[in-house]
Design goal:
There is one protein chain. By secondary structure, the chain is an alpha/beta fold. The protein is about 30% helix and about 30% strand. The radius of gyration is 28 Å and the shape is elongated. It starts with a helix and ends with a strand. Bound molecules: zinc ion. Zinc ion (ZN) binds next to loops.
Length: about 400
Amino acid sequence: MLNKLFFAFLLSTCYALSYGQESDIKKIEETCTNYIEGFYEGDSTKIISSIKPTLYKFGYWKNKNSDSYIGDGHMTFQQAIDYSKNVLLKKQFAKPDAPKKVEVLDISNHIAAAKITAWWGIDYVLLSRHNNGWLIEEVLWEGPLEKETNGLTISYIGNMGVLIASDSNAVLIDGFHKNYKPDYAYPSESTVQKLIDGDYKNFKTPDIALVTHHHKDHFDADYYQKFMRENPNSLVVASQQVNDLIRKNLDNEANLSSILKQVPYNDEEYSLNHKGVNIKAFKCPHVNPLRHSSVQNLAYLISIDNYSILHLGDSNWDVAKSVLENKKISDKSIDIAILPYWMLLDKSSTENVANLLVPKRIIATHIPPGFSDEAYENLQKMYPNITLFTKLNEQIAYK
Ligand SMILES: [Zn+2]
């Protein structure tokens, strides 16, 4: 009997405790929601009801170029109220679908911790009990909010041709070329047509088509003209040499010339933003300058969904080294470096990759159909993070 009573007492205590926790969770969620809505709706009464006047709030904001976080300064109780009033005054309300997530992390007797996800980023919040509810005492935050993405898909189109696709964008590099010599893989006509039509493996039409240089294992003018005629909202980015070849048959189609962007071939960096994709293009001389000094070979640094991809075209270390040093590519947090295989073959290559590019992943391209198994295996041993593109239309996912 005693045991039964004791058990019943235990049960009721547990219930009381969990009930207490539950109501505290609700109250903390309410306080944090008021804090978010105070800023979102410009409702300063919600700010006042959720924050202690002794608020300590400090944040870090990620610098887009350097990828490092920089202190964004303190916000006092009064500044929080003023911020909220300003939102109302200027009608700069948060978007209806802006995130508004509160997770209670821990609750003690008098203090608690929560995580807030809002449009500006992540806040870690410390609260204390106040009368019958909870108030925010301290906030440490970082921004901007990182988008949740499915990562990138990179498809092999032929030779150095790749299609890079994110959830919302697609960029094609050196993707349109025809049969030239047996050593160079090239896309079939149906692959090209699908890319132009936006039918390629369910990817959308490329928003941007980049060309490194005019050699026939990288480029075919007819295909680009067709691409431009069918996709007036996309862009083609290339050197003057390539632009001249594309323009040849576009005399009576002035409307198409705005699609064609020309990168000057000098030491300046060319920059362009289209549909949220950022492209930086720069001169990176062609391999074998004795024979190819007149070739305008461009390298591209592509920012898509916060990923950075580098494509060097037909270059090599002798001619590219100083360019890569000057552009400080090793500081750019390269996710994927797309290189011709000859830039990867020996010991100095591994050092150059490690020192000048520092990529998280390497894609080897320009691989001839007769590439030996031994060379293939060697490259895989030398670089643990390498993909060798040899089968047309093969794909890798990168997250
Ligand atoms: Zn070439």
